[in-house]
Amino acid sequence: MKCLIPVIIAATTLCACSVQKMAGDAVIEYTHDKAIPYLMSQGDLQSACSMGQSMGPVVASFSKVDLDPANVGIATNMASGMCAEFEQRDAELERVRAIFENRTTAAQDALIREKQGHRLAAIRMVAGYENAMQTFGNFSEQCRSYENDTDELLSLLGLASGALALLHDFNSEKSVGISLDVPGIIEKSMKCFSDDKWWGMPTALRASLWLSIPGAGPEGVDPLEAMQKAAKKGDEQGVLLARAMLAMMASNVGKPEIMCQALAEMPDDSKLNHDYDMLNAYAKGIITHQADLAWTREKGHRAPFMQPTCPGADSTTTLDQGEVDNLLDGLLEDEEIPASDVTPQENEAAEPAQQ
After folding, report:
1. How far is the first Cα of the chain from the last one, in angstroms, to the nearest whole number?
2. What residues contact 323, with CB distance under 8 A and at least 6 apart?
3. Do 133 and 97 form a contact (C-beta atoms < 8 A)?
């Protein structure tokens, strides 16, 4: 009987490992074949962000039972990176608003939180890039073939995740320290993807790296012009990622007129490819953030609701100052606060200026 105990324990352990592997295989396969394509057809970025944060660690944990979840880690890490981007964008808007209102201490605090968001986004998105390298290999020197479009899309998104991680790392004072080899790998790998198939995104990503690294682009090629052509190609195919990259990079390099033009030429929803609603929602988030920054710098508030345009562009919902005053007067009349109950307070916006 004593001799049988080790055998029973070993058999039980092997059985448990087998069950875990079977479960892991099922989860990884389902996520790759069903969950990711389904997610691409949905336009709820918050849901994608939550899925990346919740499912990502669970799927990744199956590596402990000798499974390889890297192929689905591309999407889950990029999705969780969106959560960090949301926080970073809110902090950036708060910083710009504080500067507009001359609240220097609030602006400094917002800048710190903005860099924290950039750092977290870089950590998560570079993990998605590393998952792509692990799954598909480094094909910057030689292109590879794919079994299906889902794998090719995951490979492209993994490289895009790496490019975004580089931008976030730069904006967090290189706190993550992403290798300087990464831009070259991404730039060369983009040659393996077709602009005609993937919405102009390969050229847009390459051009974004040319803009970020002086002297990296081919001689005689204007990166912004290349991005504009890529954006139009993406518009024709109903996916806005190249246009979003154009708006973001034009703003980053101090070309607000090109950024505003990119916003003004964005096609309406009826012309978009709804098989990729998630990617379009992500692109719209980038575009809307650029519009919000432009409005906040000039007006102190975000762009009008559902109108990601630059200040001065046609807008049907913007209130003039008289309408704003009337609205505030009506709110104050409704409250009917007795004058004796009002406690004098210092003007917070004026304090930093006095200091």
Report:
1. 84
2. none
3. no
202 belongs to a structural domain: no
Domain that includes residue 285, residue range? 222-308
For 300-324, how does the pLDDT look when each residue is reduced to its tens digit (9 = 90+)? Answer: 999 999 999 999 855 444 444 554 4
pLDDT in tens, 90-131: 999 999 999 999 999 999 999 999 999 999 999 999 999 999
Q: State the CB neighbour count (10 A cutoff) for residue 64.
A: 9
Domain membership flag for residue 350:
no
Q: Does one domain contain both 117 and 233? A: no
* Alpha carbons 314 and 85: distance in angstroms, whole number: 29
- Is 232 within a domain? yes
Query: How many domains are contained in the chain?
Result: 2
Q: Does one domain contain both 184 and 273?
A: no
pLDDT of residue 28: 72
- Model confidence, pTM: 0.80
Contact 203, 229 (CB under 8 A): yes
